[in-house]
Design a protein that fits this description.
3 copies of one chain form a homotrimer.
Chain A (H helix, E strand, L loop, with lengths): L7 E6 L6 H14 L4 E5 H11 L14 H23 L4 E5 L3 E4 L2 E4 L3 H7 L3 E6 L2 H10 L10 H20 L5 E6 L5 H13 L2
Chain lengths: 204, 204, 204
């Protein structure tokens, strides 16, 4: 069984408000300066576009009306399409960075973002977990209600989600012997976090 | 690969003394009032009856004499039989609720109650984890020695078992992208816990 | 699918400095006194010798130059070879004890020591996790710099590695319904720890 893709696959996870987007944007910049080939894909966005293109949903907002179990097949197909897309972009070198979640808080409980049928497609070299103090994360969520639409249960809710997401990351890592890189993203130090992430990636 | 059964499969777990039986009995009542089809199966009991019926053991008490590794094949066959039974009862709708454990404290260490070969049969939509403060759980175990025959190591032993059982639940959830619903069962509020569980189930 | 080997497979894990080697050496002694057949294999050493014998690397020190992803195939082949070796030594009874890690701290992040492709070969009856207070472990690492070449981040670094290694153990245990035996190895009580481990093993 094939254990890896020709390029390296790095999944970057983190609870909402942890600063994942900022870290990834720094990562792109630093990688570009270094002349590294990095292709970043947001799993959720890619899946939505894919679902519209394939006629599975009419428009992106309709995904919310799709029951969890109907999203399963869509997830696996989107994961496969991401790898094909990266293959065209990267060929046999460089890094595919996938921006997603290890665990999602839903109205039906905590939902694994990296279940077996997705991991079987992605075959990640690394699962990075961006973390920050729960107080900081909860503060960001409280300040920007338009961006963080769901209620994450304050500091305690965030602390739990982070703990469970870490457990889920280790569980997902066992399937393809992915490394788990825990990256601390402290206030105002997103660039340092990105540099640490890239250093882990270059050691893969 | 088929990812789900036609009906929804909800596995309800919890350490001994957490009040799982009471929550499930409230769940049955509330579901009946709402006109929802719910079939509850206790995994352990079903497996014992199955083992006797199939001539694998002479009577139910003989299961303790069956070594752990001999129980593995029995588990998978019982899980398959539970799904067939539920198919007859539920057809293509409603909920199969399976009362079992995510982790069992044995004389050979902590034993996963939802290993891959069982999960491959059950394909759960949800793994619910009923929790309660370790002090409350240890208190119940101490008061009712006839029911909780094993020694669970007091408050600290219960706290650990609960922590490890949660980790095991997330590990089992990754195989079929099951949601993990953590349900707090506070003293005297088992009905509220059952309502919360049902609310999660209805959002599957 | 075969769920077990004819002999019993016990994987003994623990972070560097936890006293794993001492516990295993006591285990061998006690098992010999009791007339139990126990074959101990160090996974890392066995893999290195195997790699040299098969011409994959020139000499044992060259393993560090092999990138993580190239080690994956080697791991699976070494695991298979360990089982074959144990079959010759043990026949259809006794215990194969494998000395290894559930999680390894690398320059590319935490790396699962018991990923699916290794577990698929080993099919463990038990994953034992040797633990000790993080302060004790960090103290041993600080005193013996020649043995513990990597920096494990002091008490807090050890505490985290132990916590994550336990999560990884439970994740690996789900594949073949292995029990997880958490063994406390307190200062000066390695023999007691070995006796407890053996007691768990005899109950498999």
């Amino acid at each position: 069984m094939r254990m890896r893709h020709p390029f390296k696959v790095v999944i970057v996870t983190g609870v909402p408000g942890v600063g994942k987007t900022t870290v990834i944007s720094h990562l792109k910049e630093i990688a570009a300066e270094k002349g590294l080939k990095v292709e970043v894909v947001n799993f959720g966005s890619f899946m939505l576009n894919y679902a519209v293109k394939e006629g599975i949903i009419e428009d992106r907002d309709k995904i919310r009306t799709l029951p969890l179990r109907k999203q399963l097949d869509l997830q696996a197909r989107a994961a496969k399409a991401i790898i094909e897309y990266a293959g065209e972009k990267l060929g046999s070198e460089g890094f595919l960075v996938i921006d997603t979640h290890a665990l999602v808080r839903t109205v039906a409980g905590y939902w694994p973002g990296l279940p077996k049928h997705v991991i079987d497609q992605l075959k990640p070299d690394m699962i990075a977990v961006i973390e920050a103090p729960p107080e900081v994360v909860a503060g960001r969520q409280a300040r920007d209600k338009t961006r963080y639409r769901a209620d994450f249960g304050g500091v305690e809710g965030v602390r739990r989600l982070m703990e469970y997401a870490r457990a889920a990351s280790f569980a997902s890592a066992v399937f393809y012997a992915s490394t788990v890189a825990i990256i601390e993203n402290l206030e105002g130090q997103a660039e340092e976090a990105a540099r640490q992430l890239l250093s882990y990636m270059e050691n893969l």
